[in-house]
Amino acid sequence: MKKIHFIGIGGIGMSALARYLLAQKWAISGSDAMESAITKALRKEGVNVKIGHKMAHVGRGTGLVVYNRAIPADNPELREARRLLIPTVPYAQVLGEITKGHATIAITGSHGKTTTTALAGITLMKNKFDPTILIGSNLTELGGKNVRVGKSPYLVLEADDFGAAFLEYVPTIAIVTNIDREHLDFYKTFANLKKSFLKFLSRVKLGGVMILNRDDKNLYSLHGVIATIAKRNRVRVIWYSSANRSAGKIKKALKIAGEHNASNALAVFELGKLLKIPESNILRALGSYRGAWRRMEYRGMMRAGAQAINVFDDYAHHPTEIKATLSAFREKFPASPLICVFQPHQAQRLQMLFNEFRDTFASADVTIIFPLYHVKGRDVVAKRNANDLVRAMHKKHPKKPVFYCSNPREIKELLKEVMKLLPAPRSPILVMMGAGNIVSITDRLIK
Q: 219 Cβ partners below 8 Å, 6+ apart?
């Protein structure tokens, strides 16, 4: 049997697809620039994973090469595959073919799609729908993995809007949580981004369903165009809102904090009703969810001098996500001092949303900013850096303690100094936040 080779297999989406195809009895190999927990796990599962990108990783025994959009055209493995006339396909295109053979529930949005996908997948699992699930996070309910292969026609899929990947998918049911000014390095303008979401909704199968967030003003501003698309394709539209009578029940059932998560659960509640799952069963499934990897994830305790600190990890990297997440922490721990350590992710995001970032940490008692994490293959020379952000925060909010930590390895010493600013003896909450490599610093803190 010829194998399928993944370039960039350590990515959360790529690894999910690799695991799905491995379960279909394909021989899978892959490469990534760096060793990670994901590459180590894949190796244990039977995937031939190499670290580094080399021509030798692709040979005549390879039948297909899958790559993600972050892989540059001059990647040696991609070039070798094309020289050998081995078919090369973007990751989203392979996923798109899989969606055609399923009753696909595709969940997208600028924020909240991972949590919503997790809630949807768990709700179907606990109600004997036996779904296949592909998600951009590792879930305890999936054995610490990002994929579940079921035997029913249902596929619950986190549909990525970056690079317009979701335009490859053909959903039976589409859920959109919100639309925000995200991935503007790709879309260039907010108008282009909105058009892409409309194109995604146009791909819902004839007679399918859209489940959309009425509370998101950017999404609802498109309701006239959405109604036209729905009428043309004979698609049913369901708008959900926190004003719905069921919202109170859902918030009471949830074990995860935050208004944004209550909104995500509302979308899944509507999905459950659509699939004729009894309301009590939906609420029970929603209440069983305890959170995903890197989403308000409790990592352990650390000590800064004599002070014990509870450490959490979170993937938030956009101002809207940061505000929502810090607000949820404040709701969950109202009496605890809240420290946020944030690593800005991607130069163009920081540049384009600079003023929003400046005003986004209000819920934190202390904010510490790490240097900017540059994304290989996506970043340009930064006009503004993380230190500029700290200076802007000082100027706009002079009474708020904000620090720049130029060397993340020195964070523990800085935290010892920060402890002196906080009231004692309440145990502080430390949130390590960002989509870059800050998670490796978190690992060191709790050892």
A: 176, 178, 179, 197, 212, 213
- Is the bond into 337 cis (omega within 30 degrees of 0)? no
Average pLDDT by consecutive 10-residue portion of the chain (447 residues)?
88 93 93 90 94 91 90 92 95 95 96 94 97 92 92 96 92 97 86 96 97 97 97 97 90 87 96 97 93 81 82 90 90 89 90 89 92 73 82 87 90 86 77 89 84
| DSSP H/E element including 158 | strand 154-158
CA gap 155, 152 in Å, rounded: 8
Per DSSP, the three-state class of 240 is strand
Token pair 């297999």 in the structure block, residue: 9
Counting beta carbons within 10 angstroms of the beta carbon of residue 265, is it exposed (0 to 12), middle (13 to 18) or buried (19 or more)? Answer: buried
Q: Are 29 and 47 in contact (CB under 8 A)?
A: yes
Question: 251, 179, 161: which is closest to 217 by C-alpha?
Answer: 179
Helix or strand run (H / E) with residue 311:
strand 307-314
- Domains in the chain, please, with CATH? 3-89 (3.40.50.720), 101-288 (3.40.1190.10), 297-445 (3.90.190.20)
Reported as half-sphere exposure (CB side, CA atoms, 13 A), residue 177 has a value of: 31
* Cα–Cα distance measured from residue 161 to residue 109, given in angstroms and rounded to the nearest whole number: 7
Instruction: Name 238's bridge partners.
Output: 211
Q: What is the Cβ-side half-sphere exposure of residue 375, based on CA atoms within 13 angstroms?
A: 20
CA–CA distance, 250 with 268 (Å, rounded to integer): 10
Q: Confirm if 183 and 172 have CB atoms less than 8 A apart.
A: no
